[in-house]
UniProtKB/TrEMBL annotation:
Single GO term (MF): FAD binding
InterPro entries hit by this protein: Crypto/Photolyase_N_sf, Cryptochrome/DNA_photolyase_1, DNA_photolyase_N, Rossmann-like_a/b/a_fold
Name of this chain's protein: CRYD protein
Origin superkingdom: Eukaryota
Keyword annotations: Chromophore
Single GO biological process annotation from the record: photoreactive repair
Gene name of the record: Crydash_0
Pfam families: DNA_photolyase (PF00875)
Organism: Anseranas semipalmata (Magpie goose)
Length: 76
């Protein structure tokens, strides 16, 4: 979870993620984790700037061949 997603927008100051969307996201992540656990897997969830969290996670794991990501589309 990127803390920057819970700040105001740069144009109008409205929150990017309000309380209802946050609740939906948390419930979705919890459900995904439970589904993966039933299949013998897990889900790593972290809070922080992705560029820091991913770097630290790669260092922690030590053996990572590929990292895939997508960039948020920003309107001008």
């Amino acid at each position: 979870f990127d803390p920057r997603h819970y700040l105001g927008t740069h144009c109008y100051g409205f929150p990017k993620t309000g309380p209802h969307r946050l609740r939906f996201l948390l419930e979705s992540v919890k459900d995904l984790r439970e589904t993966l656990k039933k299949k013998g897997s897990t889900l790593v969830v972290r809070k922080g700037k992705p560029e820091d969290v991913v770097r630290d996670l790669i260092a922690q794991l030590g053996c990572v061949g590929v990292v895939a990501f997508h960039e948020e589309v920003r309107e001008i």
